Amino acid sequence: MRALLADRGTPAGIRLGTVADPDPAPSEALVRTVALSLNFGETELLADSADGAVPGWEAAGIVERQAADGSGPAAGTPVVLVTAGGGSWAELVAVPTAGVLAEVPAGADLGAMSTVPVAAASALRALHRTGPLLGRRILVTGATGGVGRYAVQLARLGGAHVLASTGSPDVHGESLVRLGAHEVVAGPGAFEGEVHGVLDTVGGSQLVAAFDRLAAHGVLVSVGHASGEPDRFPQGALIGIPGRHDRSIVTFFLGDESGIGPDLAWLVRQVATGVLDPQISWRGSWESAAEALVALRERRLHGKAVLEVR
């Protein structure tokens, strides 16, 4: 079968090649992919991938063969899938039917569906960690990224007052407001008052500044570290004082989340019915994967990139 393979000898770190078809375990379905969605974290991991390895965390496609044990969707069913260990950037993917696979509504755009498993599921699960949303102030850093754009929409849907942080509010402010942001700010220090929760995808100095804006009992969920900066807290930043106590920083890794199948199923329905906008900013054949990967790595691509397997 064809697949996108890690290749450190190419400018993008990737090439289209061939590998053996997967051999599914009895509890795995064989899925023929239709669309793949790219994530910033995948571009960072390419440099550490062995040449010839098949990267990729998510895909949407059609079940080619139902799991031998009879579990999961039947052949011909459209699905989305997440593969925490990589391997989704291929024509065929063997995926466990328990917890990481969800059916897609008939007739839905599989390109849009492919953006759900990592970005939307990460945003949803991370927002759960912040606690109740209704009537609370929630800050989303890196709001123009794939996870950030879904987080803004989901936080607004949950009844939060949403602050969307971006390095270019003059460029991206209007689009973030359309997604549901009540305020668009230039960083965690660029607004008045405190917040009850933070979904941080940037790390470094922004994580430190965002933690400083947390109200008592607030929770900051660290989902990504796009800045690459170290997280250096000043002396006294973690000392509890009246009105500023019991604040938490929670780390997050989607690959260790269990039972996300129902969340995936709910999310794809929201995208399919237009409640959530996948914010696709680049879409094309996987033969042009290098172009999309370089644009994503250089931060020239905001939102989601979708590769069509054809």
UniProtKB/TrEMBL annotation:
This is Zinc-binding dehydrogenase. Residues 9-307 form the Enoyl reductase (ER) domain. Transmembrane segments: none annotated. CDD domains: MDR4.
